[in-house]
Structure formats: structure tokens, C-alpha cells
Amino acid sequence: MPDVRTSLIDSFGRHVSYLRVSVTDRCDFRCVYCMAEDMTFLPRKDLLSLEELDRVCTAFVGKGVRKLRLTGGEPLVRKGIMTLVESLGRHLRSGALEELTLTTNGSQLAIYAGDLAAHGVRRINVSVDTLDEAKFRQITRWGDLAKVKEGIRAAQQAGLHVKINAVALKGVNDAEIPEMIRWVHGQGMDLTLIETMPLGDIDGDRTDQYLPLSVLRANLMDRFTLEHIPYKTGGPARYSLVKETGGRLGYITPMTHNFCESCNRVRLTCTGTLYMCLGQEDAADLRAPLRASEGNDLLNAAIDEAISRKPKGHDFVIDRRRDKPAVARHMSVTGG
Length: 336
Ligand code: SAM
Ligand code: SF4
Description:
binds iron/sulfur cluster, binds S-adenosylmethionine, twelve-stranded mixed sheet, 336 residues
């Protein structure tokens, strides 16, 4: 049956085709740039159930969203998460959805890689900021690199295409990036570098960690031949081909290069709040219209209204004179 789609187009003419869903704000790591060690998480009763998450995602797919990314917090620590992945897989089979994917810290991947592949997931992003076990423990506070590597191997064996994401941290992993490029590309994976963003209170000072990727890239060019390529994965990363390894290196540069003009995404939190921009406070509550009736009329109207309010862009600045993050909520709430 041909399905009649209402495209989600915002007031700046941008087509919203990508929904990122934070399925939990909880995590089994406490990365220094993402969370404070002692975090207060949301009461479980405030979370959307897996069925409700499915309903909202399905409403977005009905409106033309072609790509869904599950994230968090750590998506694989949400109880029963494979039920959601399995049920969303039906939209891949029907052709309504092009891609179902997730961003994970990899700690539970060895357990779930096979199921993810079986339910139609083809590509995943795994966050790894260093290949040094002690440093990995320092950055993640609670993580175990050996377990994450085991998860990555399991994912590759299950046929998943893995991309590694690394946040560039000044004085922490910058010197190690060439080694990471060689390792990641050597395993047949892509590597994307991300600038730290001022999201949520953490225990340390972000200005100490912030490293503009323009600086890092200039340093890398002493060692590698980087050729800009037009490769795109639907996200904001720009890519280079590293001639020496034959692999791709991506850069996500929200701070030094503003990519808002081509933004195609919105983000749903695990409590049903829709953020139209990662870097702005404005949001729409979808949980109330979702729970107000069994039909989707109220939910659909709330989604349309929210998209019409999608702001032009963010105004992140990392500045020593500001002692507060630009946005109070943590990345683990909105979903990275
Ligand atoms: N737990 C999963 C993981 O770590 O991949 C998914 C959620 S995590 C919030 C998603 C991505 O956001 C990770 O790659 C993480 O490194 C990144 N991230 C977290 N806080 C950030 C910040 N303040 N600035 C830039 N990236 C951040
Ligand atoms: Fe957890 Fe991911 Fe945040 Fe690290 S970056 S604390 S793994 S949510």
C-alpha cells in the first residue's frame, strides 16, 4: 500500500529525515567530558516505555524520517532494548526506513552484536577515545577497554560495519591520534574525531579539554596525506581519505565549523521531550500527547508544531569567562 507521507520541513526549508533517540539517560561508564561521577538519573517512571518509544519512532517514520539512531546514555543498558530494535526492524523490511543504527560505548556489544545484525542493523558507531587501557579507565572512569575491543570484534564478526568515534581531548589523547588512525583503519573501520561541546555540568573544566580539530588536522598533515572526499553518512561529519592507510577520517566540528544550515535531525529524550537542536533549550513535550489518547492525531500535531519551531542553529562557545555550560543538560540526556 503506498503510504502518504507528510514531509517534515522546518521554517528554514530544511527537511528533517533523521531522528536520534536517547533510550535511557543511564550508563555503565562515566566519561569525564560527558558526566559527573556522581550523577542523578531520572526516575524510571518518567521514562517512555519501549512500546511508547516504538510509537513515537513509528510516527516519525510515517512522516518521512528515513534514519533512526538509538543512543543515550548507553542504549545497550536499557532493559529489553532488543525488543525495541526488533520491532523497529519492521520499518526496514517495509522499506519505510533506510537505516536503523546505534551509538554505543561497546561494553555490552559482545552480548548483543548478533541480535542487532539479525534485526536489520547494518552499521554502528562505537566510542573509543584511546587505545591505552589505563587512559581509557581514566577517561571513562568505569570502562574496560579489553571488553570494548571484544565487543567490536563480535560486531565485525556479526557483519556490522563499525565506525569509531573519538572525542579529541587536549593533552589526553591528541598525541595518540596517529596511532588510533592506524589501528582503526587497520581493522577495516572508519574513525571520526569530535570536538568537545559545552553540554551539562561535569566535574572538571572544559576549556582545559577543548581542542579545535583544525589544529589537530594541521598536525596530522605532517604525518599523513589527507585528501578531502565528498563521502557522507547522513551526519555532519566531513571526511578525508588517509592515503597511507586507505581509510576514512571524519571530523565533527560543531565549535569551529557550524553545520546548522544543513541540519536534518531532531532528538528525542527517553522521557519523550523533543529537542529540535542539540545546542538550544527550546523543546516540545511529546509524552503528554502520546499518553492522552490511543490514536496518534495529537502526537502527529505536536510533532508538526515542534518542527515548525526548529531554530536556525546553536550558539556554542567554550569560553573561560563563562563558568556555566552553554546548555545545562548533559549529552547523555539529549543523546549524542
Ligand atoms: N554511550 C554511548 C557512547 O558513548 O557512544 C552513546 C551516548 S554518548 C552521549 C554519544 C557520543 O557523545 C559519544 O561518542 C561521546 O563521546 C559523545 N559526547 C559525550 N559528551 C560530549 C561532549 N560534551 N562533547 C562532545 N561529545 C560528547
Ligand atoms: Fe556513557 Fe557515552 Fe556519556 Fe561515556 S559518552 S558517559 S559512555 S553516555
